[in-house]
Structures are given as C-alpha cells and as structure tokens.
Amino acid sequence: MRITQAIIAVVAMAGLATAARADSTQGITASTIMIGNMGPFSGPQSTFTPLNYGPEAYFRYINEQGGVNGHKFVTVFADDSCNEAKGIAAAKKLIYEDKVFMIMANPCSGVAMAIKPMLVQEGVPWIGASANPKISRPASPGIFHSTYTGIESGRAMASFAMGKPGTTKIALAMHSDDWAHGYCDNATDYIKGHNGEIVATTALEHGATDGTAQALQIKASGAQAVMACLYQPELIVLLRELQKYQVDVIVLGALGADFDQVIQAFPNHDYLKQRFFQPYQFKAKIGTGPLKKFHDIFVKYLTKDELPKVGEPTNFYYFGVPAAIVTVEAFRRAGPNPTRESWEKAMESLKDFDTGVLADSETFGPDKHVGVEKMYAVGLSAQGQETVYKAWGDALPDTE
Amino acid sequence: MSRVTRRLFWLIPLVLVPVPLLLNPYQQYVVNTALLYVPVGIGFNLVVGNLGLLAFSNVAYFGLGAYTSGVLMAHLGLPWWLTVIPAGMVGGVAGSIASIPALRGVRLFYLAIMTLAFGELMRWTYIRWEVLTGGSMGMAVPTASLFGWSLDTDRRRFYAFLAIVVLIVATTDRLLRSRFGRAFLAIKDNEIAAAAMGIPTDRYIVLAFAWGGAVVGLGGAMFAISVGHLSPISFDLTELIRQFAIIMVGGLGSLTGGIIGAVIITAAPQVFTSFPGFDELVFGLLIVLVILFLPRGLASLLARAHPAFVDRYYRD
Amino acid sequence: MMLSLLPQLLVSGISSGMLYALIALSMTVVYRATTVVNFGHGDMVAAGAYAVFVFGLGFGFPFLVAMALAIAVLFLAGFATQRFLMQPIVAGPHLSLAMMALAVGYTIRGALRLEWGTETLNPSRPYPQDIYMFGNVVITTDDVVICGFVLLLLAALFLLLQMTPLGKVIQATFQSQRGAALVGINVPMFHALMWGGGAALGAIGGVMLSMITPLTPDLGQWTLVQGFAAMTLGGFGSLGGAVAGGILLGITEKLLGFYANTVFIEITGYLVPILVLLLRPQGLFGRRAIVRV
Predict the structure, then answer these.
(1) Enclosing domain of residue C45
(2) Which of A213, A214, A233 is opposite residue C214, by nearest beta carbon?
(3) ipTM of the complex, rounded to two decimals
(4) Residue A94: what pLDDT?
(5) How many domains does chain C have?
(6) Chain B neighbors (3+ CB pairs < 8 Å)
(7) Which chain B residues are within 8 Å of C265, Cβ to Cβ?
(8) Is the per-residue pLDDT at A358 higher than 50?
(9) I need a surface site. Which of A346, B113, C53, C124 has the fewest CB within 10 A?
(10) Which of A14, A42, A86 sits opposite B159 (nearest CB)?
C-alpha cells in the first residue's frame, strides 16, 4: 500500500527531458582547448600510463611555443583502472562535468569500446592508443586512430614471421582478453590467408609465473614461429621457458611489452638473438635520430612522477605522442576559431602527414579514420645489437 | 518507536524523486550506481551479517544477474523489464548452490575460500563462454526499456531503479522482521542451540543464501543497463573488496547499513579521481580503520543517535 | 599422447610445487597458531619479493644480505599486524578477522602499486643460469636452488619442532591454547610471533619468486590462490599436508595444462578446493573442519 503510493509518485515524476547533445564548441574557449586524458592510472594496467603522458608532454611543449592559433591546451586526467564501469563514469565526468573538447589516449580497449556509444551520441571526438580495431572501423564521426591498431600490428607480426623462408607453422600464446585477441586474431587472419597454419594455441593468464606446459606444447607442435600476444611479465616468462627447453622458434611479441626491458630481463641474450622480435612503430630507434627531439620533450616537460623511475622514456611514451601531434596539426589547419566540425574536417584532410615519430605517415579521409598502416619490426641482430627491420632480413641501415 | 516514525522512512524515496532535475548526466550516473549497489549491499549483508556465514560469493550473483539480463537482451531480444525477474532468479539459484558447502557443515575460512573460488570460477566462465558473453571483450547491452518506455538516459533509469530498490528494501525489511529474520539471528548466535530449539537451520540457511543471491542478482540486472557494457573485469576480486567495504562501512547485519554503505562507497572514489593510484591504498586503510574503531559500521553510529535507526526483528 | 614429456612435466611440477608448498606452509603456520587464515598473506609474499629488490638493487647490498633483511622486515610486519591489528579484534566476529587481513593485504598492494605500479621489475639473478640434462629432462639452476632451499628449510623446521624445547612449546600451543596459557606460556605473544614467523616464511617464498619471475604488485593475488588450493588439498591445518598439497598442486597444474588445455591452469587453484570439498573434505591429511548439528 505504501509501496504502491511510492511507485505511483515515481512514475508520475518520470519522463522528463533527456540530455542535450554537447554543442560544437564544448571544450573550446577563446584561448583554451580542454583535453580529457583518460587512462589506467591505478590498477594492474598502470604500466600503460606512459601512453597518457606522451601526448601530454607534447601539449605542454606546444603551450610553451604559444599554443595553436592563440589557443593553449588544458588537460584533465581521469582514471579508468581499465575497468569499463569506472571508465564510463570517468568519461561522463569528462564530458558532462569538465566539458572537455575531446578524449585522448584511453589505452584500454575495453573501456574505449564501452564509451564509444556515448562519444558518438554526444559527438565528442576521440583519438586513442587502444588497440581494438573495431573502435575506428567502420569510421564513426570524430573517432580516429593515429597509431597502429591490432589489425596492423597483428599483420606486421605475422608477415614478419612468415617472411622468414619456410615458415608456415605458427603457434599462438595469448591472454584471454580483448587486447590479446586484438593482436592474435588479426595475426591468425593473415597467417591463414597466406597459406600458413596454426599448429597450437596456448593460453597464458595475467600473473602466471610459469609457462612450462605452454612451452612444451609449442615444442611438441613443431611450430616454427610463435605469436606471443602477452603483456611484458608473461612474455618474459614464456621466453624463459622457451629458452630453457631450447625450443627452436622465432617469437613475435605484441605491443604490450617494452623491447628493451624484455632484453634486460635476460642477462645472457644468446637465445634471443635473431629469435625475439616485436612489431616496431617508429621510423628510428627511440631517442635517436628524428626521435631525439621527442626524447628531449619528454624529459623537459614531464614531471618526475610521470617519467620512469630509472632509465630513459620508453617505447610507450613515443607511441602516445602521435595523437597529440595530429590533434595540434588539425587545430592549426582549422584556423583561429575552431569548432568541432572544423577540427574533424581538418583531421580528414591530413594526407601523407609525417608525424616525425611513426614509421608510416598519416592519411585520413571521410571514411578512413585509421591514419597509419605500414610497420617495421625490431629484434636483436646476430651480434646482439638492437636492430630495426623493414622485413625479415632487411634491416634499416643506420640501426645495425 | 511508533508506526508514525516508521512511515517517515517512506519519505526518503519521495524526497529523492525530484533530485534528478538538479543533476547533470555524470552526477546522475553516480547516483544511479549508488542506488543499484543498495540491493547488493543488502543481499550481501543478509548472509554475512544477519546469518553470520562467511560466504564470499557475492560477486558471482552480481555477475550472473548482470549477464543474465544482458544475454537475454542481446541474444533473445527481450526488453529489459522482462529480464529482471530471470536475473533475480538466476542469482537466487546461484545462492542456493553456494549454500551447499554451508549445509554440509563447512564454516569459517574454509567456507570463505570455497565461495570465493565459486565466484572466480564464474568469472572464468564469463571469459571462456565467448559465444554467449562476448568473452573478455565484453558485450554491449542494448538500451533498456520498461513496458515500452525507453530507458535511454540516466535520469529515466534512476526512476526505474528507484522503484525496484524501494521494493527490495521493503520486502527484505519484512523478511528480517519476521520469524525468518529472528531465525537468522538465532543461527548466527548459536547454531546448535537454534537447531535444538527446533529451528530448521538447513532450510533457513538456504533461504538466506537464495534471497541474498536473488537481491544481488537484481542489482546486477540494473548494473547491466546502467553501465551498458558487461565485461568480466567488472566482477573480479576488486569488486568483492568494494562490496565488503559497503557492508563493513555501512554496518554488518543492518539493513540501513547496507544502504548507507552503498551510498558512501560509491560516492567516495569519485572524490579520488584527481588522485589516481591512491584508491587501493585508501580503501584498504578505510576498512582497517573501520574494523578497529567502528566495527558495527556507520549504522551503529546512527543507532546510537536515534532509536528510530535501531534494527528491529519484530513487526510493530 | 606424448608420454615422453611426462618426466619433464613431473620435474617442473615438483619444482613449482615446492614454491607452493612453502607458501602453503607459511599460511598454515599462521592458521594453526591463531585459527585465522591470513587473506593478506599473498600480498606479504609479494612485499617480500619487493623488499629483496629494494635492499639488493636499491641499497646495493649483496643478495644474501638483502634476503636476510627482507625476511626480517616481513617478520616485523607480520608481528605488528597481529599485535596491533588482529589482537584487538580477536573476540569479534570471524568476518572482521578475515576482512582485516584482506584489507591489510590490499593496503600493502596499494602501496606497492603507488611506488612501482608503472614498471615491471625484472627478476634478479644472483647465480648463473645453467641447464642440466638428465636424459630428456631439463633441470635449471633455478629448479635446483628452489627445491634444495625449500627442502633444507623443511628439514630445519622439522628439527626445530621435534627436537628443540622451543619446538615443543610451539607444538603444545598449537594443540591447546588454554593448556599452554595454564602452564605459563604467553599466548598473545606466541600469536604475534607466529604471524611474524609465517610472514618470514612467506618472505622467503617471495624471494624465490623474485628470482624467477618479473615482479608486479598483483603477484600477491595469484600467490594467495595457490596457497589456498595447496592448503585445502593437503588438509587444512596440517603442516605436512601443506607441503604435500603444494607439490601435488604444482604437478596437477602442469599435467592438466599440457594434456588437457592450458586454459585450465588459471583455474586449477579454484577448482581444487571445490573438488576436494565434494570428494574428500578433510583433504589428504587434515582434520574435519565441520560443524554438525
């Protein structure tokens, strides 16, 4: 009885106005552009936050140059812990409370997929580093990938491996999550489409400290190459086991591990020479040549807490930066009074634009919202030198 | 306390009714999340607080309720309101299954580990049963509707949730103030004596587990459409700790406690989004401090302040 | 069916099993002493692994010194946790005890993540990595060191418990706290010391882990699950059972992973307690933890 009264009151008050679409200058004032930088600042995936700090460093650098067309960038960070529910709350805060212009970085694919409907509905642009290709394919308004997704990376892993003459039998070692599927499913597609064969599929879970069963299965299957869609700790564990049982395979890691750190985990890298490779996103070795400029930007503009405790800025910082570079370029082209629409048009006008970081140049179009395609690979040469390869056996000259 | 004071509690949902007009979608989302965690807190509290058994399988019911609702909507095209009852039922069945070790006499830490394992096995199932659940990529939950009225904004969902939660609170309150509630209390205090007095402990244990599971499952169904996307990571051990925090901070064994805990634990992390990385540390410390200094939760503070808030186990 | 790999799987299984045994043992010590399962134990093991890293690579101490320091620090941590956080609430509901332990572990994990969350620390290698072949079976220095060390430790513990007066005191208090109190043993101090001891043993497990695997703050969660499974398999509360359970768990994981499917490795730790309950609730060597009315 009391319950019924309450319910009637509730129903009577309901059916009120829905949320309005965010307007086309949300986040843009006369002198600022507000960027929402979302990522796993807490939780197990917090090793990916350099993907958030890379672009942030670039924005700080641009601000010191005076900004773009009189606008400086203001960043609001939000933590998603790689958890979709938390990510949706964070995105709602950025969009409805902080009223940002766009969302950037967002390394976690699960979160990106979860917030995508909201982004599209509200018209908020997104340029992120997460690897799930479905985010930007088919093209949705405002959603762009300025770096490689699982499709390009998976293909690069598989094509590099199969570039070694006689390699047709491939094994998979992967996590069960969407990130790993993003790489390994696409690698599998390439392999099957090029007369290759998947001879073993092994699972390795987050936090695993032992890969004996997996390594032995791989050995027993007669695989010649392994697509290792694993995060860094598990990749190291697998490599250790493969080394222990002297399994004669080449191993292609995915982009969840830092090449240098993996090599450092093995004081004796004999086994890894000419065996362990990763797809490589950049046009030169990080911190050298054209990438030295970015190394200096990171070191100058990031705080002590945002940089690694020990050592130089790692691969992920450079991987995060292109999103900011293309954003700034699009604002440059959009002129002194940018709106969301003019920015998006500017983005789609980018053709063969060289970010100065990535191996490939950026080309967008009304239906093409993934800017890059071609990747290199990185591995240890027979002499133990970190070398960048265009394809199997074809090393970049200044890196050998 | 008189019946008049009791009726005053019904003002609370009525007062909440106009609140959404003041909130932006983000704030509304947070309020909705607090609201859907109320049945979670209540259900968890029922077994762990009122009955006194260490059943750590709560997240399993939450996840099963959420996935039941999501799967029925996505794969069978059912509208949300038709999936709510099944979600509750699945939660209830899961609760009954989880009660099996308890019926066999397993108690304390052994029971805790067993029920924890059950919860984690469920999470493994969501990951592996890809055809149904989308695996770890998760699945999108279609927009909800209530008898044809689309629940596409957070504000509309608020009203739907409010109605359901009010129902849950009212019925659980009835349950606790009936002979069942008194039996739970007796079992918690001294199980052997309770059985000696003629209370059919086995039956009541199953009832508590089933009701708790069903209520949490309903929370899961609301979670599914509030977030709009289900993935196994939402139902891991961190979620369990969050639900623990709800009942410990709110008050073990107290209906009011379940409600207060849900609100506080949902609202608190939003304060911390500017200080990322601290939330694990703060959560842990919070629970430690609450156990040391406020073992019966905030509800106990309220109870000391005014007799209206003291839990009663009899009808008046 | 590749039975030729069976010996290798068994050997690897025993090697990881030894580690699980150590962890299960450290948890059982705590459980026997205070009837509380330390749900935060896994995170203490992880803290031990990080402590070795801090003392070794951070402060530059030689490995054995770093290890000794890590063990000492964790002993103090376990002692302090029991003395200041568990003891005050020992009269309360068991849920509070379980939650307190869990919360302490969670706090430790949060602290580890705050400090080292964004990096993965590579394992330290205090000894050269060699490989020995026995027929088809590969054994690494890691395997030898871990198995050897754990066996030595077990022998030492056995001697301690059976042969020394202190060991007799410990056994007596395990069996009857009231009786021990009656003969003048300081039972609360005993509890705190046993928590310290359990944490120290766990720290040794952490040190072993830090030698073979990269460190992440979430190491504790996995460790806890394996420890539970081993304890349940061997029989809750039985010291020998913990060891046997650990070794069996290690072997089962390898066999299941290789012959069935690697997807099962992740949940072996969860399946085992449930299966044990259904088939033989007291585990291999345990006593029944059951309330019958």
Answers:
(1) 3-279
(2) A233
(3) 0.85
(4) 93
(5) 1
(6) A, C
(7) none
(8) yes
(9) C124
(10) A14
